[in-house]
Amino acid sequence: MQFPASIKQQTCSDCLSGQSLGFQIRMAFQPIIDWQSKTIIAYEALVRGPEGQGAAWVFEHINDSNKYYFDQACRVKAIETAARLGCNTLLSINFLPNAVYNPETCIKATIEAADLYGFDLRKLVFEVTEGEQIPDKEHLNRIFRSYSKRGFYTAIDDYGSGFAKLDWLIELKPDILKLDMQLIRNIDQNAAKQSIVEKTLAQCLLQGTKVLAEGVESKAELDYLCAVGIRYFQGYYFAKPELENLVDISQISNLN
């Protein structure tokens, strides 16, 4: 599918201006922890409103007429803010696959932003969330293949809450799989959740996909997840997202 001629390809400056959206966006960042090395290996960029309003406020203002611009603006703003804050880890950015017409065309503003702000393209991770309804599996597969060819990392976010089951995991072969927080909540006490996670882990091991547990909120959850072999974590147990700030490893709670 080609990019519609009626819609202008965004440039980095267009996205930062907020003119196409009608409002400015900002970014909060939440660290992703490598429990084995006790280091921060990445930050996830999370969209916020002009006064720091949460993502729900932002998505109330997104519709079919501006979702492409929103997707582009989020990428550019995340890169610009992360670079300004001195991010030298991986940077994880959510994207809307239904807003991506042609991955080769739509990535231009992202590359322009990385070049302008001096951010290493090889440190970008693109996450697709399960909350997005995706009627065309092949379309998402084309996006993943295109991004992988350019050296970007790909991730499925919120796994276990929506569209993606084992067949999607096998076909898409993301670099990273993020287990949804509802799957993680009280997993130490829930045999059904444990079974899902252990089957998913086995498949990820076979295909070389790294597994990350998000939404960790308790030591009991962490202990179980570590025991089954998960190494990467994200959640309030360690640190909450902070608006336009990168939490330092010395500020991470419960690291020992």
Question: What would the keywords be for this entry?
Answer:
globular; 8-stranded mixed β-barrel; disordered N terminus; 256 residues; alpha/beta
Taking the sheet with the most strands, its summary is: 8 strands, mixed, barrel
Unreliable spans: 1-8
Strand order of the largest sheet: 1-2-3-4-5-6-7-8
Q: Would you list the SSEs in sequence order as H and E?
A: HEEHHEHHEHEHEHHEHEE
E-strand count: 9
Class by alpha and beta content: alpha/beta
Rg (CA only): 18 Å
Query: Could you tell me how far the N terminus lies from the C terminus, measured between alpha carbons in angstroms?
Result: 49 Å
**How much helix, percentage-wise, in residues?**
25-40%
Strand content: 15-25%
Output mean pLDDT: 85
Shape: globular
The number of distinct helices, counting runs of at least 4 residues, comes to 10
For this structure, the quaternary state is: single chain
Explain what the structure shows:
This protein is an alpha/beta fold. Helices cover 37% and strands 20% of the residues. Helix 3 packs parallel to helix 5. The radius of gyration is 18 Å and the shape is globular. Residues 1-8 have low confidence and may be disordered.
Short account of what is shown:
This protein is of the alpha/beta class and 256 residues long. It has helices at 12-17, 55-60, 67-84, 103-106, 108-117, 137-149, 166-172, 181-184, 191-207, 219-227, and strands at 26-34, 39-48, 90-95, 124-129, 153-159, 176-179, 210-214, 232-234, 242-243. It has an eight-stranded mixed barrel with strand order 1-2-3-4-5-6-7-8.
